[in-house]
Specification:
elongated, 8 helices, mainly alpha
Length: 198
């Protein structure tokens, strides 16, 4: 359906700074096309007054007017040839898109355990036998069970955790399923319960 005078935002030019709206953008585009420099300057100052009225709560900020003139320069795509009362050269940096930050990619054999668990597993492989390794093995096994319950579609089998712990530590950690006790679902240990009773 094509009705004369009726157009949709999806068919219009993309706004540069959406918070000011399409009408302010049209005013700025009009100001860019004005031939007379004095008239163009007066038009730009009128646009700044309108922009300032749109966000009166920001007037207390020290650099508020600087920000408005920067936005005017950005929205005109730096084509507005006027005498700016502020230096708008830094506005070019604001208008440039920042470089894309690469998402950290790590190869985990099983994604539902997460990178931190595999860091703990690597640490377990390097630790000598003793209390520190036993405690880290207990913490790792309980974290693996929680992660498996949360991300493994609800199948938090203790036997699977014990098997995975042995497999991913290359057999260094062998938990006995008959003697090893996992923490309950709250993540609290027996020591935490004893402390609460006191």
């Amino acid at each position: 359906m094509n009705i004369e005078g009726l157009d949709y935002n999806t068919q219009r030019k993309q706004l540069i700074l959406q918070e000011y709206g399409r009408e302010v953008q049209k005013m700025i585009d009009h100001a860019v096309g004005i031939e007379d420099r004095q008239e163009r300057q007066a038009c730009a100052e009128s646009i700044i007054n309108i922009m300032a009225r749109m966000f009166p709560h920001n007037r207390e900020n020290a650099d508020y007017m600087q920000k408005l003139w920067d936005h005017l320069a950005i929205m005109s795509e730096f084509r507005l040839d006027i005498d700016y009362p502020y230096d708008v050269t830094e506005a070019r940096q604001l208008s440039e898109r920042p470089e894309v930050v690469p998402y950290p990619q790590s190869e985990n054999p099983v994604r539902h355990y997460g990178r931190m668990v595999f860091m703990m597993l690597e640490r377990l492989k390097a630790l000598p036998e003793g209390k520190e390794r036993d405690e880290l093995a207990r913490l790792t096994a309980n974290q693996m069970k929680r992660n498996l319950a949360q991300w493994g579609h609800g199948s938090a089998s203790e036997e699977r955790v014990i098997s995975d712990l042995s497999r991913f530590t290359d057999g260094v950690i062998q938990l006995d399923p008959t003697t090893f006790k996992f923490d309950n679902g709250t993540g609290k240990t027996a020591n935490d319960k004893r402390r609460k009773r006191r």
